[in-house]
Write a structure and sequence with these properties.
The chain has strands at 5-10, 31-45, 54-63, 75-78, 85-89, 105-115. By secondary structure, the protein is mostly beta strands. Strand 4 and strand 5 (85-89) form a beta hairpin. 14% of the residues are buried.
Length: 116
């Protein structure tokens, strides 16, 4: 039986503005999301201008119990090894049609982290 792990997600605060009324990058308080399945993805070296740089990509399979708020621009923290770290959500993940996905997980969430 597959069992996911608990991750912490910080959603973007879309109401945050600077003194000129422009959007700023701000986040809501982190919340725990249980039963997330972590699937390792590609690991790629960056170009020659960053010889020590590496980009790590994962796919997180989000549980059906998530209330489907937008994850666009969110940050996800994984505490457990070997994937410990903070990752940025890529794009705006959408859940599968519930009639096509009978498992406990219905939304693949691509995340990435760049180091170096």
């Amino acid at each position: 039986m597959i069992k996911g792990r608990t991750v912490r997600v910080k959603l973007r605060d879309r109401s945050a503005r600077d003194s000129f009324g422009n959007d700023v990058e701000a986040y809501l308080a982190p919340e725990a999301v249980g039963n997330v399945v972590v699937q390792p993805g590609a690991c790629a070296e960056l170009d020659s201008s960053r010889p020590e740089g590496v980009k790590v990509a994962l796919t997180l399979h989000w549980p059906r119990t998530w209330d489907h708020r937008s994850l666009r621009g969110a940050r996800v923290t994984i505490d457990a090894q070997p994937y410990a770290g903070e990752y940025r959500v890529v794009g705006d993940p959408k859940p599968f049609d519930p009639t096509l996905c009978p498992t406990d997980w219905n939304m693949p969430v691509e995340v990435e982290a760049v180091d170096g």
